[in-house]
Amino acid sequence: MEAVTGIFGFLTGYIVPFVIVLSLLVFVHEMGHYLVGRWSGIRILAFSVGFGPEIAGFTDRHGTRWKISAIPLGGYVRFFGDEDASSKPDADRLAAMTDEERERSFAGAKLWKRAATVAAGPIANFILAIAIFTLLFAIYGRTVSDPVVAEVKPDSAAAAAGVLPGDLLFSIDGTKVQTFDDVRRYVSIRPNQNIVVTVERNGEKMDLPMVPQRTDITDQFGNKIEVGLIGIVTNEEVGHFRLQTFTPLEALREGVIQTWHIVTGTFKYIGNLLDGSMKPDQLGGPIRVAQASGQMATLGMGALLQLAAVLSVSIGLLNLMPVPVLDGGHLMFYAVEAVRGRPLGSSAQEIAFRIGLAMVLTLMVFATWNDISALIG
């Protein structure tokens, strides 16, 4: 009985939130492709959330098969003339089409229509993230505090640089900071990198160079996270913690800013991986996403939605990578076609698709290995 209870708890606590979050993100992404494709006059054969065998579905009056498939790790929109779900053109089928059929196929559509249809998927993910953050800011607001130092940790980067309790953190690398969270966000993604913190003390500003220390911290769920720290703390007395509320327009602005922070933070993280500032074991795959979904679900709908917004940005950025089989790879092909005046040959595209698939599978295996390694310690 305990085993059954444990399995049921695992399914409801981790798998169900994961499937709900991922299905939402996939649906929005593919809906972007679908809406722009339909608007462009391209015939759509199938819209699937998930891969593999169909579990349930229906065919609409336009001939599109809407379905939920067995493997909830993605989805696709299949256009008329595609060989498979990756939108690779079926050369033999295209050659046998009439002019009217070719005009309604994806490969036969004008270049700008194909590019817009492909780009619409990642754009839809960014719009979803902005919408979620806007909703959260409008409903919950956010807790903020002044960027004033209450305590400096011994042997920290801040202590070595000369930061003192009571200092007001004015800017970092010339960027003005408004709240203590601004400081934390900037520093956390710059471990072992030179930064200059400008503090205001007794009415005078001082530039203090320092290097955030790469540190493993543990969150409330026991997950280890690698961040940069300079060793400063604020508190209620000097930070004046308060709830900041927003009008709908202000919430929208904050939603855009928050989404942009995630975009820039992601690129900074990739740069940190390349230069060795951060370890690659921070890169997570589906197991870690499922774990995070379950953990956020225990904190409430707001936390789960926030995770969905972050993942939505990540999916949008991942799909814009210039790798064949991803949206960014298709856009790269279209850029080449625009310059050459004609598309790449079918053999060249075939080779590129195989290389792209190998790259994506390698990344998935690596991320999954990180997930398993984290689980077993």
Comma- or semicolon-separated keywords:
377 residues; alpha+beta; four-stranded antiparallel β-sheet; 12 helices; elongated
Short structural summary:
It is built from twelve helices and twelve strands. The protein has 377 residues and is α+β, with helices and mostly antiparallel strands.
Task: Produce the secondary structure layout.
Layout: H1 2-39, E1 44-59, E2 65-79, H2 91-95, H3 99-103, H4 111-140, E3 142-144, E4 151-152, H5 157-161, E5 168-172, E6 175-176, H6 180-188, E7 195-201, E8 204-210, E9 213-218, E10 224-229, E11 232-233, H7 236-239, E12 242-244, H8 248-275, H9 286-299, H10 301-319, H11 327-340, H12 346-376
Antiparallel strand pairs: 1-2, 3-12, 4-11, 5-6, 5-7, 7-8, 9-10
Q: Could you describe the largest sheet, including whether it forms a barrel?
A: 4 strands, antiparallel
Strand order of the largest sheet: 6-5-7-8
Class computed from helices, strands and strand pairing: alpha+beta
What is the oligomer described by this structure?
single chain
Count of DSSP E strands? 12
In the predicted model, the low-confidence regions spanning at least 5 consecutive residues are none
Helix fraction by DSSP (H/I, runs of at least 4): 40-55%
Number of helices: 12
- Measure the end-to-end span: 28 Å
Report the principal-axis shape. elongated
The fraction of residues assigned to DSSP E strands is 15-25%
Question: pLDDT average, as an integer?
Answer: 85
Cα-atom radius of gyration: 24 Å
Order of helices and strands: HEEHHHEEHEEHEEEEEHEHHHHH
